[in-house]
Amino acid sequence: MQNEKIVNIAGYRFVNLEDRDELRQPFRLICDKLGLKGTILLSKNGINFFLAGEQKSIDSYIEFLEKDERLIDIPLKISYTDYQPFRRMLVRLKKEIIALGIDEVRPADFTAPNIKPKEFKKLLDENEDLLILDTRNDYETRVGIFENAIDLNLSTFREFPEAISDLPDEYKTKQIVMYCTGGIRCEKASAYLKYKGLKNVYQLEGGIIEYTRQVKEKKLNNNFLGKNFVFDERRSERISDDIVSNCHQCGEPCDIHVNCYNEACHLLFIQCEKCSQRMSNCCSYDCKKIIELSYEEQKKLRKGKHNSNKIFKKGRSDKLKYKLS
Description:
21% strand; Alpha-Beta Plaits; 15 strands; alpha/beta; Oxidized Rhodanese, domain 1; single chain
């Protein structure tokens, strides 16, 4: 499979799925049968999936999906790689397919209208009073962002309501366009703003992924700077040649995300090639010393320790000198 063209698809829909628990096993079975890898999230308010495999397997998955009339014609983001970007196949049951923690916000019932990339471009050119909100997490915005967009500096999407409440009141009267990677967070975020009573709210249709596709297809001027962070082994797709971030260790311009080689850490951070060689792909000298130990010694040090607190800091570790440059 490594040498064949792999199809990557991502899709979601906010829809009432009261039978969520019964759906899990059929999805597991079909994906295993088709040799697909990735993640499917099922909640009582919708489905979200990222999958990769051969074209015929992807086609069969879509055929299976659309046997459920609630899941017909889900818009798909499609890309291609010459390798499998996912390590395994997961089907998970979730309370929310995108976690905000507010039960009253249900995009299946109400959300803000979409705006197409061409319309968005026109607004950028003509409306100086436009407020552009990036609803992604900080480790994503570090490597790429729309010109003049407001980075809410979110550690997780659950911080979105608090971040919005901290914005100046005059911002909330402007025309607002929100964007994210593929559109799902904007649907939830725009539903929250509608729930809070804001009127002039829009979301970029299909997010950065669809914007990039249409910029190339329709030869539009690109207003996105840097890379789009993606949630597989690629970690990012370059949109423009701009480098908008810095190496977290030396401060030089850089936009390469890596995971610390110490398995007990595995911190996601930005590291240039020079620091990668100097630090042996580690985030700190402590981790560098650990990976120089034998595998058995490393395993003993990890025993009984839970590493998720460091992993989910996504680059906020105090060890990273230039993380906020």
